[in-house]
């Protein structure tokens, strides 16, 4: 899908909306580098049904709980115009101009509530915000989202965003940077390799009452790519608590599948160690989740957990990690021309 970018040089803040399965959060990033976590909004029944039944894409660990098959119910999958049906002029319009469908209508109250919360804080009208989901979603979903954003008079600086785990990792400042001066000077390839750190594996775990969502990321030069996706609505904290004799074993089994290493890179290299762990979501401190992580990652878990506590303690609330990182990304996008003028290397 082609991306479009709204720019606003000199904008004083960026806003991020993170839409989780049962709730939404919003944060603001200001031009002075400060952040504010504004609100968590509980979703209504239509919102929860839509998000819970959304089909993740690129989920290579699909089970019946993942809603990963095309024939499962997905309210944002456009089935209203069969291929052989006679089409009207409206069928050729972009989805956000056709009028709201069921998916769009279910998102509007949440987006409007998040917008209202931000406007109450900044005491002025909000015109732009970025939106992120826990997992990769289809183009149909982004079409519905753009329509919903338009309905509440909001613009999106970028037409789509990566999954929430990547934005949470950015919020923690995990990304490494290459030596851009070395690249600009066209020094030898070996010298460039010595000037920046190698790729690293990052595990992001979003845990809520509704689902477990895990991404295995590769990061190099502050560029993040998800390589594995696991989303399971059968492993949410609420479901496990209602399961007779429910333990951490089900969580550990799922985590073990997605963290099997080594991970083969396209250049023939192998990544053998997870070096960063990012936790997000309302149940990020769940006791069973941490027990499962410790069992799966073993000694590496203690190293990562210690590093995580020393570097990130009290700086980012896991509940707002994705919306916080997204707010900064929104500010960066809006101010890109201004930043580019100040730093030509961008």
In the predicted model, the low-confidence regions spanning at least 5 consecutive residues are 1-5, 62-74, 79-88, 181-193, 338-346
Determine the number of helices (DSSP H or I, runs of at least 4 residues). 12
Write down the oligomeric state.
single chain
The proportion of residues forming helix, as a percent range, comes to 25-40%
Order of helices and strands: EEEHHEHHHHEEEHHEEEHHHH
User: Strand fraction band?
Assistant: 15-25%
Radius of gyration: 21 Å
Give the end-to-end Cα distance, rounded to a whole number of Å.
23 Å
Give the neighbour order of strands across the main sheet. Answer: 3-2-1-4
What is the makeup of the main sheet? 4 strands, mixed
Q: Overall 3D geometry?
A: globular
Record field, number of beta strands: 10
On the 0 to 100 scale, the average pLDDT is 80
Question: Would you give an account of this structure?
Answer:
By secondary structure, the protein is an alpha+beta fold. The chain has a four-stranded mixed beta sheet with strand order 3-2-1-4. Strands 7-6-5-10 form a four-stranded mixed beta sheet. Helix 2 packs across helix 3 and helix 8 crosses helix 9. The protein is globular, with a radius of gyration of 21 Å. Helix content is 36%, strand content 18%. The longest helix has 21 residues.
């Amino acid at each position: 899908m082609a991306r479009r970018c709204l720019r606003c040089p000199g904008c004083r803040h960026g806003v991020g909306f993170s839409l989780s399965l049962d709730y939404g959060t919003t944060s603001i990033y200001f031009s002075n580098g400060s952040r504010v976590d504004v609100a968590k909004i509980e979703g209504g029944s239509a919102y929860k049904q839509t998000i819970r039944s959304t089909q993740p894409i690129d989920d290579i660990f699909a089970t019946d709980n993942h809603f990963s098959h095309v024939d499962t119910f997905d309210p944002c999958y456009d089935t209203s115009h069969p291929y052989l049906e006679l089409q009207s002029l409206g069928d050729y319009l972009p989805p956000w101009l056709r009028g709201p469908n069921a998916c769009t209508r279910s998102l509007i109250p949440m987006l409007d509530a998040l917008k209202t919360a931000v406007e109450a804080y900044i005491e002025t009208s909000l015109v732009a915000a970025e939106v992120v989901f826990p997992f990769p979603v289809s183009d149909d979903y982004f079409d519905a989202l753009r329509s919903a954003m338009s309905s509440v008079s909001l613009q999106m600086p970028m037409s789509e965003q990566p999954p929430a785990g990547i934005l949470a990792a950015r919020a923690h400042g995990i990304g490494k940077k290459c030596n851009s001066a070395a690249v600009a000077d066209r020094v030898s390839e070996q010298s460039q390799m010595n000037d920046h750190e190698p790729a690293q594996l990052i595990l992001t775990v979003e845990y809520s009452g509704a689902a477990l969502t895990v991404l295995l990321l590769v990061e190099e030069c502050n560029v993040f790519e998800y390589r594995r996706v696991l989303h399971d609505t059968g492993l949410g904290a609420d479901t496990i608590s209602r399961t007779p004799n429910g333990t951490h074993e089900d969580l550990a089994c799922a985590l073990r599948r997605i963290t099997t290493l080594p991970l083969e890179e396209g250049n023939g290299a192998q990544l053998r160690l997870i070096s960063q762990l990012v936790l997000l979501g309302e149940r990020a401190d769940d006791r069973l989740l941490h027990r499962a992580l410790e069992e799966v990652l073993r000694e590496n878990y203690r190293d990562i957990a210690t590093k995580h506590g020393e570097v990130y303690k009290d700086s980012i609330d896991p509940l707002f990690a994705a919306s916080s990182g997204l707010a900064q990304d929104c500010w960066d996008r809006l101010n890109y021309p201004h930043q580019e003028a100040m730093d030509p290397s961008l």
